[in-house]
Amino acid sequence: MDHRNENLVPAGSAAAIDRRRLPLAAKVFGVLCVVVGVAVTALLALVIVDAIREVQKSGLQTQMSNVALVISVVQSVLLVASAVLSVFLGVRLLTNRRRFAAQTAEALLFVVVAAAICEVMDNGIHGSLISYGVTVVFLIALQSYLDPSLAEERELQRKLREMDVRDEAEEGTLGLDPSGKGYITLNFFNLFWIFVVCSVIGLVAEIAYHMVVVDPGHYEDRAGLLFGPFSPIYGFGGVLMTMALNRYYRSNVVVVFLVSAVIGGAFEYFVSWFMQFAFGIVAWDYTGTFLSIGGRTNAYFMAMWGLMGVFWIKLALPVMLKIVNLIPWNWRYALTSVAAAFMIADCAFTLVALDCWYMREAGIPQDTAIQVFFDEHFDDKFMEHRFQSMSIDPGSATRAR
């Protein structure tokens, strides 16, 4: 009976692809994941035990050391989690469980990104972050390769590009969720362009709000990246809103508003907290306002996030999808790759420039070639002009260096 059912599975379907045996290279990589994961887990356990003993002996002197300790503990937990997930990934590769391996790779990706954020907050921008970046890129590629639905999509693109994709592009339905569970397909292409569009629209809206409400008639550049008209907090906010609300685009406006307000407020709080403790930067301060939460967010701006979420999911997202569909279908992957490479470089340059700005303010010598380059091209005057809403105080950062 089982054999007959297997024969009924279409050859190109996700179920059939999920049952295909993984190549030998994947099996070898699975063995490496298990071996390295077990070894790193044991090593990290010993390091954590030693660190706990040291903390018990030396004690904690200041509030900032408490914050730094929390970040270090979280990073340690994340590193242990990544090692354990590596073991699970290896086992699932060895047992040929493609779909579960893809899910594990996706979970490992989020853990590695979180660990990298903790590393930046603890030690700033340095060479070891390259290993995090390489790991993230590799996990994205691995997850894309393993995921049966993505593999199915690749086969369909090869076989039906001249028919289905072209028809969908002409009809303006390319990118819609074919299952009907959500409004759009949450793939890299859609989410990347949502990030770009929201980064631009958010920046324009914030500049206009500042000129009209905060300081009438006065222009202030509110850009969040070194190059281009982008404010990444709105880009990431738009992506988070889309991922959270994609299945609820038909829901009651009140539900969408409340979910958007909570997500937006939590995200705004985290970004403010990260910028301060990683680089000593305060980009906004709502202290003294109504229902202010640590000066990082408040009721007013949470309500603004809620309204933006309603506007985005109910009105703007369909329009944005139509605009993105104006990109010729046979250009979209090449154009997206080029644009993504630019955005990644822009974000990396921004983080390094902020780190060098922090080090200059802290009086820390900068002698590497990269630091000298950034000192020459992105000095204090440039940074103050580019990031006009930011102020920097190394004393509020958690870094010891």
What would a concise description of this structure say?
The protein is built from 14 helices and 2 strands, in the order ααααααααααβααααβ. By secondary structure, it is mainly α.
Describe this structure in words.
The protein is mainly α and 401 residues long. The protein is 72% helix and 1% strand. The chain contains 14 helices and 2 strands, in the order H-H-H-H-H-H-H-H-H-H-E-H-H-H-H-E. The chain has helices at 2-8, 14-18, 24-58, 63-94, 98-123, 129-146, 148-171, 188-214, 232-245, 253-279, 299-324, 332-362, 369-377, 380-386; strands at 281-282, 391-392. A two-stranded antiparallel ribbon has the order 1-2. The longest helix is centred in the N-terminal third of the chain and has 35 residues, at 24-58. The protein is globular, with a radius of gyration of 24 Å.
Total beta-strand segments:
2
List the quaternary state of the chains: single chain
Compute the CA-based radius of gyration.
24 Å
- Structural class, by secondary structure, is mainly alpha
How much of the sequence is in beta strands? under 5%
Percentage of residues in helical conformation:
over 70%
Largest sheet: 2 strands, antiparallel
Compute the average pLDDT: 78
Separate helix tally: 14
The end-to-end span amounts to 66 Å
Which runs of at least 5 residues are low in confidence (pLDDT < 50)? 1-18, 60-64, 169-173
Order of helices and strands: HHHHHHHHHHEHHHHE
Strand arrangement, major sheet: 1-2
Estimate the global geometry from the Cα principal axes: globular
